[in-house]
Hints:
Blueprint: H1 22-32, E1 36-38, E2 44-46, H2 47-63, H3 67-79, H4 92-107, H5 146-149, E3 161-163, H6 183-191, H7 200-209, H8 213-218, H9 231-249, H10 260-285, H11 292-295, H12 300-316, H13 320-334, H14 350-355, E4 364-370, E5 377-383, E6 389-394, H15 397-412, H16 414-418, H17 444-454, H18 462-468, H19 472-477, H20 479-484, H21 491-516, H22 522-525, H23 532-542, H24 552-555, H25 563-578, E7 585-587, H26 588-595, H27 603-613, E8 617-625, E9 632-640, E10 645-649, H28 657-677, H29 685-701, H30 707-716, H31 721-725, H32 729-743, H33 750-767, H34 772-781, H35 787-801, E11 808-809, H36 810-818, H37 821-824, E12 827-831, E13 840-841, H38 843-862, E14 867-874, E15 877-884, H39 889-892, H40 894-903, E16 907-912, E17 915-920, H41 936-946
Parallel strand pairs: 12-14
Antiparallel strand pairs: 1-2, 3-7, 4-5, 5-6, 8-9, 9-10, 11-13, 14-15, 15-17, 16-17
Helix pairs in contact: 2-3, 2-4, 2-28, 7-12, 9-10, 9-12, 9-21, 10-12, 10-13, 18-25, 21-25, 23-25, 27-28, 29-32, 30-33, 32-41, 33-41, 34-35, 35-38, 35-40, 36-38, 38-40
Amino acid sequence: MNQWVGIVALRDAPSAVAMPLHRMAAAIATAHRIRSYVLSGGREVRYADVREALRAIGRRYASADALGRSAAAFTAARFFADHTDAWRELPWWLQHDLGEELDRRRTGRRSTAPARPAPRRQPDSSPIPSPASRSPLPRKVARTHTSHLATTRTADRELDALDIVRPPLADPGEAFDAIELPAALTDWLETAGCSPADDPVRARWIRIATLHTSFVYERTTGPVSLVGPHLVPMLGSLGATWLDLLVLDTFVADPTIADEGEQSARLARTGPSTLASLGRWAARTGFVRRGRGEQLTDTAGVFEMVALQLIGALVLTGAQKPLLTLVEEHVRSAGSGDADASDPPGHQDWYTLLQQQPGARETEWEFTASGPQHSLSFSGTVRTPDGRSAVATGGSKKAARQAASREFLRIHLPEAMKQTPTTAAVPHGRVPPPLRYSGDEPGHAQAVDDLRAAFELTRAADPWLSQALIHRSWTYENPRASASSRQRSNTLLAHHGSHVARALMAYDRALEAAGRGLRPTAEEARISSVANTECRRLGAVLHLVPGMLIGAGERKNPLSDPSDGAAQAVLAVAWRHRGTRLLVRRPRVLHEWLVGMDDGFDPSTQLERLCSRFGITMESDFFVRGPDHGQERLCELTFTGSDRAVRWSGQALRGGKTQAKHQAAHEVLELLHAHAEGSRPAWSPQERELLGFLLRQQLIQAPSLSGKQQQRCVQGGELGLDLLATGDDAAFRDWAARTTDLTGALPSGAIDGLLRFYTGCLGLVRYGADSPLRNALREASVGCATPALAHAARAALRAAASTTDPGSTLRGVLGSWWTEPAEARRVLMQDEAGPQGAALLDGGEAAALRAVLDWTARAARSVDRAVAVDLSLDGGRPYLLMGIDGVDLPATCDALVSLLTEVVPSMRCTAADGGLLVHWRPAGATGQDAEKPGNPLAEAGLTALTQPLEVPRDLMPVRPGTDTLGTAGGADSTLA
């Protein structure tokens, strides 16, 4: 019984009577009462409305290819079943999205596709007011007239600071402690102040970071099998993003850099050489775990990638300060070219130094390659007209050229090597700082003061904030004012700020994905760049343009919007003065901008991917109307399917073809979303034709989709799958009726194909790669699961495997359990169900009920108390109420019930005053009138929902007669 210590949840005060007679009536009333969810502001919303809103949020995230968040929204919708209280807290971002979606529904506003959960501030003006009948393209900051913005009151800025409170990073589990870290890496971590012994969670993430993707791919057992295929590449992308920023930090203060082009070129030289130095350090330290194939060759790229993964893990776990030291050391070691690890700190680009020497400028070069194709070695020879030469080798032509230049200098010009200047960053104190511009430009001084207060900077930052607000057109038109204030345009700062923005965004994205577990989706793990449109949006919410110094000619340009560069430059100033403190405290608008950044696909790409999946060809034509000074473009989309074609003309607007196409695609996506929600009572003839065509084509092509494409349909909640996944029978019938009204009768044979499609998709929901059951079994197989979860996973798997077995009566299941010698002395049974107690349960329902009964009996034995079981009838339906004196049975059974309801959705469990009420979905409660003919589409989906689903063979690891997982489940917990 020791294994049940910590599983059984005791109540504060045991009741005097094990099962009072009135408790059954109260429990049934609890199961059928209308439940409400309380939002953060105190507003109560019915569960049915919460589910609808969560499904709408999930569909919109899925269309933007944010599949991690769409999956979270669809999973959360299953928490809000009408028969029980929600047992999970929603993530903060989903609570925010839920509030906005419910507000939208209450006020009747048209929806916009929320790719991220930040509230939006609308731009100060819009190029074209959108007609009331259409939804404007969301989330794109319109280009605005700078002359209008110059008069905007800067007092409207909302720049209060915010302490960032994030959920804790997911703990990979103690099983990962089996991955040994070499002594050299452990010593470095201890010296850097992040000893593995001080923070076990950080140490486990560092261990994961030492695994190359080839190693993860080959390990199907042990703790490494818990790591998803996209996790370590995500760490590598995060590390690469931060390495670029930290390398750039080492020389941004160099006064010899003339423009952003030179700064970018230096980063392009220093970044790869620093990464190469880090890769050599990783190889020497010996912490890289490679697959068998990669072990045959010492490919530099493998070590460099794992070095980036280590950087990503250090960033993710809050060890940024030790990381700064590590990068600075390797920048000095690498210099500004391809250097050898033995080079002294602070050397220069040897090729450039050679070209600067008198008599060595007219050099001739010759390169030869040798070795196998996968590991070429290059030899470089340099000669001068006077006959001097040198030869050296390297892993690339560039490396060979650097090595040969260095060898030439060592042999023929040793004095030049002694004169090599250092490339380390010049301290701020040695660089004459700019001065704050003190002219009479309206709004500039106020903007600098506002930004200083918002980012909590000192007055020493004022000259740099002033520079961040200077457009290059102003410095060109005002050279004297620029010289007197030692100012330049914001382009250098903007280049630095673009890397700051991407690093901050990458940190937030990776932390959110890693907070959910070790198996992020490809979309969750993707770390993209920050688009100029997003930076322009930040500039709009910061109201930067009114405080900018802009040339007169540029200010007259109605299409100019310089706020993106200014926003990047402001971020650079904040980073230079506050550094990593921006991760924990920053202005509210900056935080909302970061979490609301759109890194998904644009509407055109979303629609094209949807059409491609269902065999629809989409073509676009463009038309121009209006006078030359105010031309508007519209896009006409043509969709071609198997038998016909339809057209859709988008709203006309100012801008280019791309924006017009995005608008038309957005309108089509909005129609599909409105149909899925059932929010439109009527359609125009053009809308009916388009929707009918698209939906009919999807339904016809659905049976031919591959397993991967079916998974995409599940993730997107397409074709009513979001309703079937949550078991909303009536809602699915309504959707099917709306759809059939638009598509008409489907071809013969299509319904059978749709039954196979829905069956396959629901199988992915219950048993797919990232289903709750499979994740629980995966954790249990390597010892990462809690005892409760490990027992629950095995019990749920046995119940799932029994879904195709012959059924049994409810009373028969109870009788076989009650009469067992181990249970007979601890059960108080009361049976008032009469003939209905002989209700037939299918194999899965019978096995699931037996699992709950066994779990309850074990809990009772662990506290030496009896189980009270009451079988009763209400409205012709059987109900089973179980309780243990002094035990919170719902909390005790939580791990089991949450998995059983996934694999046997017809069984329902309701918490009732410390007891657990078990009941079943009534077979006829699907909202169908028996006197009316059934909808074939609805019947296909509901048949797939209610019929037993066969468990995949790879999930059948339970050995007969045991309670342990076999080798098919990956019971081996070693790394071998």
